[in-house]
């Protein structure tokens, strides 16, 4: 019996062809599109679901891609897809930072209100 390490089993599970690697990048773009739409619509539940799918695809791709040689055209396709994904990621992060800032302001305002109400009661 030949011993197979866990990492080898994972790599075999996720073995992809060069075309499948590129298709996986298109899948990442689809998840990124969903995440961007969710954040633009302030649909936080959908954002989390899309982000989980995105992370799963990234993990699958990171294991499988190491063993694949892409053609020059496929490398160009990958670069273009990653560029779009990174642009979307930038907008998603900017919108999330804006949302966090708004929530922080709301919490500060609520804390001030509670302190004022407490002061008036005492």
Structure, described:
84% of the residues lie in helices and 0% in strands. The chain has 122 residues and is mainly α. It has one domain (6-121): Flagellar protein flit (Methane Monooxygenase Hydroxylase, Chain G, domain 1, Up-down Bundle), CATH 1.20.58.380. α2 runs antiparallel to α3 (44-64) and α2 runs parallel beside α4. It is elongated, with a radius of gyration of 22 Å.
What topology emerges from the helices and strands here?
Elements: H1 6-13, H2 18-40, H3 44-64, H4 72-121
Count the domains.
1
**CATH class placement:** Mainly Alpha
Secondary structure class reads mainly alpha
CATH fold topology = Methane Monooxygenase Hydroxylase, Chain G, domain 1
CATH-assigned homologous superfamily: Flagellar protein flit
The number of helical elements comes to 4
Radius of gyration: 22 Å
Report, as a whole number of angstroms, the end-to-end distance. Answer: 78 Å
Largest sheet: none
Query: Which of globular, elongated, flat, extended, rod-shaped describes the shape?
Result: elongated
Helix content: over 70%
- The counted number of beta strands is 0
Q: Just name the CATH architecture.
A: Up-down Bundle
